[in-house]
Write a structure and sequence with these properties.
about 400 residues, alpha/beta, Rossmann fold, 2 domains, 7-stranded parallel β-sheet, 6-stranded parallel β-sheet, about 40% helix
């Protein structure tokens, strides 16, 4: 089968870019022919190991196809980016013309059997219009739903195209309900596929791998350095625990004032923080195998792939009880996971200022409890972690997507 993959932004392999990389790899393993259209910064060097460059067409930003920085699906990206809600009508029109032109080129050059887009957003809308007579499926990563709430004037323009999608892949039941409510999609068009991880890379062998229980407890955060991810909240909470022996590994990058604020809080913790910057998959897996505790204090997520990676790597988890995460982990009887309840938020990813002290208290308590469990020499429950994560390998997730591609042996 010839599959055209479309992603509006691919500056690195985190988030939806990481998902696209895995889907193309699995599709190749299954014998499918892949082609890609993606938005990239003008200085970004695509990975030739992902897809042959004669099977890729790029919309280049910052002075080639478009003069402005690449818009990200979050308003804070780990690179200089354009914010959708701040775009003028003219820049939006230029954006749409550029993507339409490149998608039409891909149609002419590749002539795909099926189109797999990412995000219920502008590029997917254009793909549906260009391929009016061919099957189009779209993966919802959650950030497109947040953009809908941040700039509804754009969101209302895409709903008609979203309703015409042949399938929509969602991360969780909660996200499926959101898509139904926002876009009025028939439930039978939505398939819950979940998020995947590479079990060959992210794993833990109790016989050969070690997580030392003496010395500092190794805590890991991996993701964007931003307020929405809860990084300032995490760093301030750790400042209240000077009596505990820990070391925080901060992996990820950010941009602008939010990044600088996070770094200032990290530097205040001195040698208790190691700043890794953005890590490759291989390097992140190495850090995870040594870490005792993975912390994700985010205020908004779809179904965080990084939690699956951390669990598979033998890390205990401390994270906010967001709907997608709760859906998978709420019934756990293992001390591998501790969920922090959030109060009502001001908007989709911002707490009320009055609740900040309560949030810091809850996170501090969760951190202290987790650190004490680890220092008690209790070993991670690897068997339980494998039971939880086995349905979220990329082989399993892509198999669910492929079922929708074929739809009883035919392409829709």
């Amino acid at each position: 089968m010839k599959i055209l993959h479309i992603l509006s932004q691919m500056p690195d392999f985190t988030g939806s870019g990481k998902t696209l990389q895995a889907i193309i790899k699995q599709a190749e393993i299954k014998g499918h022919d892949n082609f890609m259209v993606a938005g990239i910064q003008n200085d970004f060097q695509p990975d030739p190991n992902l897809i042959h460059l004669n099977h890729a067409i790029f919309v280049r930003f910052n002075g080639i196809d478009l003069n402005f920085p690449l818009p990200g699906m979050s308003d804070v990206m780990p690179y200089k980016s354009t914010v959708f809600s701040g775009m003028t009508s003219e820049s939006l029109a230029q954006y749409q013309r550029a993507f339409k032109h490149k998608i039409e080129l891909a149609k002419e050059r590749f002539n795909p059997d099926i189109i797999h887009t990412h995000h219920l957003w502008i590029a997917s809308k254009i793909a549906r219009e260009v391929f009016a007579e061919r099957p189009v499926v779209t993966s919802c990563h959650g950030t497109c739903l947040r953009q809908y709430s941040l700039c509804p004037e754009i969101g209302t323009q895409i709903t008609g195209a979203v309703k015409k999608m042949d399938r929509i892949f969602c991360l969780s039941r909660h996200q499926k309900n959101q898509v139904q409510q926002i876009h009025g999609i028939a439930p039978e068009k939505i398939k819950i596929t979940g998020a995947g991880f590479d079990q060959n890379l992210f794993n833990f062998n109790a016989k050969s791998d070690t997580k030392k229980n003496k010395g500092p407890v190794e805590i890991l955060y991996a993701g964007k350095l931003s307020r929405a991810k809860g990084v300032p909240w995490l760093l301030r909470s750790l400042q209240t625990l000077p009596h505990l022996n820990f070391r925080l590994h901060l992996a990820g990058s950010g941009s602008g004032m939010e990044k600088e604020a996070c770094l200032a809080l990290a530097w205040a913790l001195g040698d208790r923080v190691i700043l890794h910057g953005a890590l490759s998959h291989n390097d992140l897996a190495c850090v995870m195998r040594k870490a005792h505790l993975f912390v994700l204090p985010s205020f908004f997520e779809g179904l965080p792939l990084v939690i699956m990676e951390a669990l598979a790597s033998g890390c205990r988890i401390l994270t906010t009880a967001l709907p997608g995460t709760r859906e998978i982990l709420k019934d756990t009887q293992s001390d591998m996971v501790d969920l922090i309840e959030l109060p009502e938020l001001k908007n989709i990813d911002t707490p009320f200022e009055k609740d900040i002290p309560l949030l810091e208290q809850r996170l501090s308590q969760g951190l202290e409890n987790s650190i004490k469990i680890i220092l008690s020499s209790r070993q991670p429950d690897i068997r339980w972690a494998k039971d939880i994560t086995h349905e979220y390998t990329w082989e399993k997730v892509f198999s669910r997507m492929e079922d929708a591609y074929h739809c009883h042996g035919t392409v829709f």
